[in-house]
Specification:
Blueprint lengths: L7 H8 L6 E2 L9 E2 L4 H5 L5 H21 L19 H20 L2 H4 L4 E4 L7 E4 L2 H24 L14 H25 L5 H4 L8 H25 L5 H21 L8 H30 L6 H28 L4 E2 L5 H16 L4 H9 L25 H4 L10 H27 L1
Helix pairs in contact: 3-4, 4-6, 6-7, 7-9, 9-10, 9-13, 10-11, 11-12, 11-13, 12-13, 12-14
Length: about 450
């Protein structure tokens, strides 16, 4: 992973940019920051005072913690490394997990409550910096998105090479790599669940107002990017493993190409021209080029050992294609790092450190015979098509908080009419049915 070291001109250009300059290994579009919501004003006639207070306290806790983390990755200060990748991110994730079961009750119990509250979030990849929507499923999707971004931030912190105590070159431990893969799969799982089960619950007229951050294509692209970087870590570990065969390495490299190609397709028709959106496009271009460089290199090595007609000529074509994609990836890496918000050019390590040395050497060592030149002119051999093996974690939505079965419909007044009591009794019966249906649906999913 990583790219070439920056030139003096590149470093000078970065130093002219204001703000913190952070190092990015795993791209994170940025935390979407929630703004405060007055549940009491909007729900006082529908929920008990204790339920309103409970909802308000849980969400306010998230607002405060998310604001402290910073509205963008560029503003998040680099903290001392911990096992989990940061000192406050696990606490924020826990706060989100505490809020979600209570929020689900608001989303599940019909239109009587679902559209009463206006939820406001600050966006990153959209020209409109704030999106306010009166739909509880929008809030659920926003929570899942934040949980995914936290996992990506943790993975990024784990994968930043750090200098060991013995003074040797900065490196990433095997333990951190394995933990980071788990974080990447978890992030992909949150986003995959959001696309398949939450986005589909949002009405069309609300869906059309969603910010770019929560568009289906962006959510799918980030999920695929997480899987692609997980495969890249697996490839790096395979390169370090003497028992790993060329066939295994080629397959991993080709799978990585498929993830990044799919990610590029997902956002190809979206409006991502400025700011974080442009940086998102550039990171996909960078990592897709790296993936193709690795895949063509290993495909070339296997072809070079083959006995079929023109095998060596095809191998040479693959080596030179790998060299061209490697150069393209280095340029794309610099462009990504210079795009606002500016980030440091990461050191080359892992799979790309090995390939950055091997690809130019092997490409230059292969003589171009007349047959090889002709094969180069005809085009690069097609890469093998392997089914992808790495899948998102299967996320399961928590059950609705049990407090909904006794508190919804009571209102904030202790005095109720017989009609109100009859209505509340009927509503509580529906609640119990909804909770049971929810648990059944989730167990099937």
């Amino acid at each position: 992973m990583g790219c070439i070291q920056s030139t003096a001109q590149d470093i000078a250009a970065m130093e002219k940019k204001p703000g913190n300059v952070n190092e990015v290994v795993v791209f994170v579009p940025g935390l979407r920051i929630p703004k405060g919501t007055d549940f009491g004003k909007l729900l006082h006639a529908s929920l008990s005072a204790s339920m309103v207070e409970h909802l308000s306290a849980l969400r306010t806790r998230i607002v405060v913690m998310a604001t402290e983390e910073g509205p963008t990755v560029a503003k998040i200060k680099r903290k001392a490394a911990t096992q989990h990748g940061g000192s406050t991110l696990p606490d924020l994730l826990l706060a989100l997990e505490d809020y979600l079961p209570v929020l689900l009750g608001l989303a599940k119990f019909g239109n009587q409550l679902n559209d009463l509250v206006e939820f406001s979030w600050i966006n990153q990849e959209d020209d409109e910096k704030e999106t306010v929507l009166s739909n509880a499923w929008y809030e659920v999707l926003s929570i899942l998105h934040m949980m995914a971004m936290i996992s990506l931030l943790q993975a990024n912190s784990l994968l930043i090479p750090r200098a060991p105590a013995d003074g040797h070159q900065p490196k990433v431990s095997e333990e951190n790599k394995k933990t980071a893969i788990g974080m990447l799969l978890k992030a992909a799982g949150y986003l995959d669940y959001g696309v398949r089960y939450i986005l589909t619950r949002i009405p069309y007229e609300v869906k059309m107002k969603l910010p770019t951050d929560l568009q289906e294509g962006v959510l799918q692209a980030i999920s695929l990017q997480a899987l692609g970087q997980g495969v890249e870590l697996q490839l790096g570990m395979a390169i370090d493993c003497p028992k790993a065969t060329l066939a295994v390495k080629r397959r991993l490299a080709c799978e990585k190409v498929k993830y990044w190609r799919q990610a590029q397709y997902c956002i190809s028709n979206l409006r991502l021209a400025n700011g974080w959106g442009l940086k998102h496009l550039l990171v996909i271009k960078w990592k897709y080029a790296e993936a193709k460089a690795a895949a063509y290199y290993y495909h070339g090595l296997i072809l070079d050992e083959g006995s079929e007609e023109n095998a060596q000529a095809k191998a040479v074509a693959c080596f030179h294609a790998a060299e061209q994609f490697l150069k393209e990836s280095k340029t794309a890496c610099i462009n990504f790092c210079l795009a606002a918000p500016v980030t440091r050019v990461p050191p080359v390590w892992g799979a790309m450190k090995y390939l950055s040395e091997k690809i130019p050497r092997d490409a230059s060592s292969k003589s171009l015979t007349n047959g090889s030149v002709q094969k180069l002119l005809e085009g690069v051999p097609k890469l093998p098509d392997f089914p992808v093996a790495l899948k998102p974690d299967e996320y399961e939505m928590p059950p609705i908080d049990p407090s909904w079965t006794i508190k919804v419909g009571m209102g904030c007044s202790s005095t109720t009419s017989s009609a109100d009591q009859s209505r509340d009794g009927m509503f509580n019966t529906l609640q119990l049915q909804e909770v049971e249906n929810q648990r059944t649906t989730l167990s099937v999913a």
